[in-house]
Amino acid sequence: MQPYEPKKIEKKWQDKWEGEKAFETRTDPARKKFYALVEFPYPSGQGLHVGHPRPYTALDIIARKRRMEGQNVLFPIGFDAFGLPTENYAIKNKVHPKTVTEENIARFTAQLKSLGYSFDWSRCVNTTDSAYYKWTQWIFIKLFEKGLAYKSEMPINWCVSCKVGLANEEVVNGVCERCGGEVVRKVKSQWLLKITEYAQRLIDDLDDVDYIEKVKLQQKNWIGRSKGSEIDFPLDGAQDALRVFTTRPDTVFGVTYMVMSPEHPLLDKYKGKISNWDEVIKYREEAAKKSDFERTELAKDKTGVRLLGLEAVNPANGGKIPVFISDYVLISYGTGAIMAVPGHDERDWDFAKKFGLPIIEVVAGGGVDEAAYTDIADGKMVNSGFLDGMSVAEAKAAASKWLREKGYGAEKINYKLRDWVFSRQRYWGEPIPIVRCEKCGYAALPEGELPLTLPEVESYTQTDDGQSPLSKIPEWVNTTCPKCGGPAQRETDTMPQWAGSSWYFLRYTDPDNAEAPASPENLKYWTPVDWYNGGMEHTTLHLLYSRFWHKFLYDIGVAPTAEPYLRRTSHGMILGENGEKMSKSRGNVVNPDEIVDEFGADTLRVYEMFIGAFELAASWSMDGVKGCRRFLERVWRLPDFMAEGGYSEDLLTKIHQTIKKVTLDYEALKFNTAIAAMMSLVNEFYKRERVTRSEFETLLALLSPVAPHISEELHELAGGRDRLYKTPWPAYDEALCEEDKVTIAVQVNGKVKAQIEIAADEGESAAEEKAFAEKAVKNAVEGKTVVKKIYVKGRIYNIVVK
RNA sequence: GCUCAAAUGGCGGAAUAGGUAGACGCAAGGGACUUAAAAUCCCUCGGCAGCAAUGCCGUGCCGGUUCAAGUCCGGCUUUGAGCACCA
Q1: For residues A178 and A85, is the Cβ–Cβ distance under 8 A?
Q2: How far is CA A530 from CA A501, A533, A552, A718, A752, in A?
Q3: I want to staple A215 with a disulfide (CB 3.0 to 4.6 A). Which of A22, A25, A211, A444 is the partner?
Q4: Which nucleotides of B are covered by protein (CB under 7 A)?
Q5: Closest nucleotide C1' to the C-alpha of A689
Q6: Helix (H) or strand (E) holding A593
Q7: Which one, of A118, A146, A84, A147, lies nearest residue A427 by Cα?
Q8: CA A627 to mean position of chain CA atoms
């Protein structure tokens, strides 16, 4: 047998698969479809990371197996190529981001192909291609037409170094997710998408999909539904009332002051009444420098300014109470103002102590002078007028009713989720297809003018006041209004990277369609995605955004189903050999090219699947890689002692058990144990120094989804007919998986004393007879009374003695 | 602080559904082959005691339920992830 040379055979098979169009898929309503999806990569300058092959190999295994089972499989790939790193690289090196993107995509493509994935490359999608982003823009226009895209002056997260507005979701640990720079708050006119309008449906419809539980939970927590009341506190001597949201209307008698966010719009309206306005302005400026995160970091030391000359009235008892501004109240959550109940809320308690404000106990439980009493499970209302003596639950209902009847409030559902800040003052993104006209306001471009392509610019940097680079091209900006034909200006902001990835899975079904995002026939056949695997880090960003877009597309009749993905699984990270996250600065980065070069793609694939439980993080180990290569070498040498014939009689059970285990384990993403089972079978062949043709073919078929090149090569060398990827998946017989003899552990008082062997069809009496015949059992039982005997079929015979 | 995971040999990790803990792989030690090395093949491999048979201990810690607990329950500790003054 010639030596195993992965370099030769892997290239050979990759070329053959490509030449044979082995994995190109066609819509065929007569066949059962299976749509497997992996998150398409961002083609970064660093090239493929060893983290990429983990999820890709996993779903490649599923896709290959399902094809062998006869399903019509769509397993596509593409590139999510708009985004900051490319733009920053382009600025630094004075190259067009398009050039950089093309180079990176070429490299990624070569790397992915070298790993032998069964992607349908003919459907490859690139979000920066104008034929693609035409439809991203089209979807935006539809959102705009339905009132779900709107422009708003609002405080946004502003990255000082990137000079770009960030969605809340993009601020990580108080710094910019991309550059790590300082994030401050800045009021800016931004496009927003009303994802909040879909909040309830995004929660409810999780019941209809098969996502791993922690993903569902994380999405629910992120959306953060809470039920409460909005209550109006009249401002003394003014026509307005200060509206708050609270989940605790029962505690309204305990309200001793109120707090507004420093950005609250009512402040400016009443600045004439506020005698310490200078102080307000100063506090507001300081608050603006802080991000939401910094405001929360300063939790221990409450700051604030009391508004002099403006007081509120507690509608419950008519008492006048002071009003403060403080940065711990955020304008973006609820109504931007709170009623403070220091007796029963820790933050309010801290604030009241610091400013010497009264603390009233309204739920009996004691000790509100020492700390806030927050246990609401039991406790009766006190100091609360008509609520006295009620439980908290009763008081909530009674207070809500009373407030509603008196016109002070209404019950309300509130969500933590905020609208999606959708504009970026950046170059490398989809231009927002909107024109602003003095007369008509904002108007969408007519569909016929799409795609609105990115114009060439001299420099990709923003203007110093943070305007998009596109604003520097007057001949592009100045245009005519699509409505009135008068002079108008184009929107110069671009869309965030998340836009293109919010619908790409639909495009895969019909990637070249020029008339629609995808044709109804193709969408109807292929969607929803049957199985989507991706990182946990995308749970609240990409996954939620794309569900939102998909629901919108469903509402306007484009997408055939309400949910885009039937099943969602997640993989763990691959860490460096030292157990830390791989990064250049830690010097623990492993390059997949080097592994492929030294050991082969099949070894890399087997290794990453064998490394540990799929959903858990795993550390890289070069020794582990060697072990997997050794396993493939052992498979390679099996033909040395191959014999003609079917399954050996005495190996029937083992073979059928292995087929069953591998079949079930692949679907359960338990690749490590599936591979262990195949190793065990190979060890068995070695022990006997014999493998029959049928046994060998079965092993190759089982192994082929994980290690497709070596399997295909061995199949061919052994004179196998057709291609392995076209052969049917091995079948197993449930009856033949059963052992005819079983080993049973005999225990005395739960401790194993002996092992006996009985025939599978023998029952308890046989076990009992053999058990008591064992010397060790006799010794342990001697002189004692047998109290109880427990028999677990095929496993345990336990004798309890006293 | 809140939520969710996780903790098993020298290492990565197995253990359907409460039923023989450590599958499979790595590393290590020993042996065969070889002039030698590599590769390959075979054997040993949780700890303590013992020549051995065997006995005792052992799945982060403390308790509990059970004939039987890595697995279930209560209370902790540590690590990781996500969120965080959310009203």
Answers
A1: yes
A2: 18, 10, 20, 36, 47
A3: A211
A4: 3-6, 11-16, 19-21, 23-27, 39-42, 54-56, 67-69, 80-87
A5: B41
A6: helix A592-599
A7: A84
A8: 32
DSSP string, A267-331: HHHTTTT-TTHHHHHHHHHHHHHS-HHHHHHGGGS---EEEEEEEEE-TTT--EEEEEE-TTS-T
Q: Give the CA-to-C1' distance from A747 to B51 in angstroms.
A: 28
Q: How far is the CA of A131 from the C1' of B72 (A)?
A: 57
The H or E element spanning position A523 is helix A520-526
Is residue A160 left, alpha or beta, with left meaning phi > 0 and alpha meaning psi from -120 to 50?
Answer: alpha
The DSSP secondary-structure symbol of A362 reads -
Q: Chain-centre distance of CA A9, in angstroms?
A: 37
Residue A696: in which H helix or E strand, if any? helix A693-703
User: What does DSSP assign to residue A463?
Assistant: P
d(CA A682, C1' B81) / Å: 38
Please enumerate in sequence order all residues whose Cβ is within 8 A of that of A283, keeping only pairs 6 or more positions apart, or say none: A262, A303, A304, A305, A325, A327
User: Which ranges of A26-81 does DSSP label H, i.e. alpha helix?
Assistant: 53-68
A753 closest-nt by C1' vs CA? B20
Would you list the DSSP string of A150-191?
EEEEEEEEEETTTTEEE-GGGEETTEETTT--BEEEEEEEEE
In 3D, which of A31, A414, A435, A385 has the Cα closest to residue A225? A414
Instruction: Note the pTM of the prediction, 2 decimals.
Output: 0.90
Q: Which nucleotide is nearest to A614 (CA to C1')?
A: B13
Q: How far is the CA of A682 from the C1' of B24 (A)?
A: 12
Residues written for chain A: 802
Tell me if residue A460 falls in helix, strand or coil. coil
- Can you tell me which residue has the tokens 């083992």? A654
Residue at minimum CA to C1' distance from nucleotide B69: A750
Nucleotide showing the shortest C1' distance to residue A665 CA:
B16
C-beta of residue A497 within 8 angstroms of C-beta of residue A87: no
Beta partners for residue A533, in sequence order:
A38, A569
| CA A489 centroid distance within chain | 38
Question: Residue closest to B66, CA→C1'?
Answer: A750
Q: Which residue is nearest to nucleotide B42 (CA to C1')?
A: A687
Q: Which nucleotide is nearest to A679 (CA to C1')?
A: B24
Q: Which two tokens stand for residue A645?
A: 């014939």
Q: Closest nucleotide to A624's CA, by C1' atom?
A: B26
Say how far A623 CA is from B28 C1', in Å. 13
CA A672 to chain centre: 23
User: What's the sign of the alpha-carbon dihedral A10, A13, A15, A17?
Assistant: negative
In the structure encoding, which two tokens stand for residue A65, read together? 């197996």
**Radius of gyration, CA atoms only, chain A:** 33
* DSSP-assigned beta bridge partners for residue A187: A155
pLDDT along chain A (802 residues), means of 10: 88 97 96 95 87 93 97 96 84 88 94 96 96 96 94 73 63 64 74 90 90 84 86 90 90 92 89 92 80 56 87 92 88 85 83 89 78 68 90 88 91 85 88 93 93 89 78 92 92 91 95 96 96 84 90 96 92 78 73 92 94 86 89 93 91 93 94 94 91 95 97 93 94 88 82 80 78 78 80 84 78
